[in-house]
Task: structure prediction
Amino acid sequence: MPDIGERRANRLRVMNTIFDLADGLQTTMVNTDDLRSTTGSNLTELSSALYYLKGEFLIKAMDSAYAQMPPPAVWLTHLGIKEIEKARNEPEQGSAHFPPLVSIQHFHGDVIGSSILNGSPGATQVSTTTVGDISLTRLGDFIRQWDHLEANSQLPIGLPTQAEDEVDILRAQLKSAMPRSRAIKETWHSLRTVLEGAGGLMAGTGLLEAMNQVHF
Result:
């Protein structure tokens, strides 16, 4: 049986992220691919949350061609904006739709603290904080090293595109106000597998050595 508390927390996490990506505006479309990478939700979690939010008139959603897939894009409604603004103004108070906002910052140890990733690719600073047992500072160091290599065309030619996709997900988690430890860990281990599988291509990049500095 699904954990009702976790499901409610995930709905709030998704809704809060939609609000951020839309800059709190009804007129801004939020692509659910961006939403998925930022929240770290899998397709089932995201679909469940989005269809609930749509049913409660907190968001509007573009029709999906497949019933079990999340809608391709969503928009905030006036009611949804009011709900998140109230949650942020009163983070210790829950509502009929959501648990208290403060609760998802420590929900099952999933989210602890927050990160600061400044600038565009080639970010300059990540605050010293953690998500569960993950050091965001160490993770940020790795992302900056990757960005430096990419900016100077020093990433290996022939590196699988999956590696870039995984790094984009990690970067989104670092920028998120509510990074998710499970999403970071799963993506990190997937990225390590890809880079280790690249073998000699990685020689001289220092990326695998940098990964060894991140422990969780």
